[in-house]
TrEMBL record:
This is DNA-protecting protein DprA. It holds the Pfam family DNA_processg_A. InterPro entries: DprA, DrpA_SLOG. Belongs to the DprA/Smf family. Residues 137-332 form the Smf/DprA SLOG domain. GO terms for biological process: DNA-mediated transformation.
Length: 419
């Protein structure tokens, strides 16, 4: 794209040019998708289908000429006359960002294929389409800030989401999950918000692992503003991504729309804390619709921040899996036979492995005063010879001891004495 050329000139030049070359998409394609990312709000089934059918260059040409279908033109509205593509691309370049389009080889086509399939299942009549804030529609382009490749990070990734007004318990669990997943080489994906999101991002960063923040505003605009330093760290080793161009404001409806990308880019979604009505629950349900695994961390039944988690676990249609640590998460979303969680280590006891007779004799032994084998046999309900057979083994295990008056339980070992 030359700064001296207008959008319409670039579009006209690109009509007969191939959509992509060896070095990537044609300049007209990238500029067209840059314009489309600002022209209409993401999430519209009708708009995505129009761009997919016509192609990005022809779609912009038809919209600018007023020849697009009425339903699509209504989605663009007054923005059709605007052209901020040159400014958007320059602003992205200045903050170290780039525009990633489906024609790029870095595009996470495999991860986003679930969105394509879901959109294909939408009815033909635009009046029957899913609402924009809940529809599972692929993005027309993504603004990406950071050095990593999105397709590589998304290949082994897990979403960790939850409440903004989180508890200390929730933040501890989210931070631990992010850290352990990062240590295992998994990418932690979240929304960069206060609470659970931030804890998960910070946990991954502390482990030196990659993390992706999916934003509801421009990648050059930290929101919340208090997370400016956090976003800077994420952009150094991971990625900030957004469907909205640089400078875009974080309007409330945009958070609902971006949640589908968090669910789609990952192999599974972990909900750490969620109120009865929350965006984290919505993300989990989108993940389920996309065929992704839903994982839930339980919390205290007295906590309002865990009500949503428990409701997800109780939903028979969701098939949610209860998880308590990163090993459980990786076992659920990893490769069969390769990412199994270790068995829980249970405390051992000297009684482990004792026979039924030995256990009964041990239970019959008094604590203080020793008694005879005959007395033990009567209490244990067995023969004296059986008592005499098991007592030496119990003594070797330091479970019983012989005294002047007979057999009794051996005293518990005390703390080691300092030299």
């Amino acid at each position: 794209m030359s700064p001296a050329t207008t959008l319409d000139e670039d579009i006209e030049e690109g009509l007969d040019a191939p959509l992509a070359t060896v070095g990537g998409p044609a300049p007209a394609v990238r500029r067209a998708r840059a314009w489309l990312s600002r022209a209409a709000e993401p999430g519209s089934v009708a708009f995505w289908r129009f761009v997919e059918d016509a192609g990005p260059v022809q779609a912009v040409r038809q919209l600018r000429a007023g020849r697009a279908p009425d339903a699509v033109r209504a989605l663009v509205g007054a923005r059709v006359e605007e052209d901020a593509t040159a400014a958007d691309l320059l602003r992205a370049q200045r903050c170290g960002a780039r525009l990633l389009v489906p024609e790029d080889d870095e595009w996470p086509a495999l991860a986003l294929h679930g969105l394509v399939l879901t959109t294909a299942g939408e009815p033909a009549d635009p009046r029957a389409h899913s609402p924009r804030t809940t529809a599972l529609v692929p993005p027309v382009a993504l603004w990406v800030r950071g050095p990593a490749r999105l397709d590589a990070l998304a290949d082994r990734s897990v979403a960790v989401v939850g409440a903004r007004a989180s508890t200390a318990y929730g933040e501890h669990v989210a931070g631990e999950l992010g850290h352990r997943l990062g240590q295992r080489g998994w990418t932690v994906v979240s929304g960069g918000a206060f609470g659970i999101d931030a804890a998960a991002h910070r946990g991954a960063l502390a482990a030196g692992g990659p993390t992706i923040a999916v934003l509801a505003c421009g990648v050059d605009r930290p929101y919340p503003a208090a997370h400016g330093a956090l976003f800077h760290r994420i952009a150094e080793d991971g990625l900030l991504i957004s469907e909205w161009p640089p400078g875009a404001a974080p309007h409330k409806h945009r958070f609902l729309v971006r949640n589908r990308l968090i669910a789609a880019l990952t192999r599974g979604t972990v909900v750490v804390e969620a109120a009865a009505r929350s965006g984290a629950q919505a993300t989990a349900r989108r993940a389920q619709r996309l065929g992704r695994q839903v994982l839930v961390v339980p919390g205290p039944v007295t906590s309002a921040m865990s009500v949503g988690c428990h409701e997800l676990l109780r939903d028979p249609d969701l098939d949610a899996v209860l998880v308590a640590d990163a090993a459980h998460v990786v076992e659920a979303v990893g490769r069969l036979g390769e990412d199994l969680a270790d068995a829980v280590k249970r405390p051992t006891s000297p009684r482990d492995g004792l026979s039924d007779i030995a256990c009964r004799v041990l239970d019959a032994c008094p604590v203080r005063i020793g008694v005879s084998p005959e007395r033990l046999a009567a209490t244990a309900g067995c023969d004296v010879l059986e008592v005499l057979r098991v007592l030496p083994a119990l003594e070797l295990a330091e479970l019983v001891q012989m005294t002047t008056t007979g057999w009794r339980l051996a005293p518990a070992p005390g703390p080691p004495v300092a030299p």
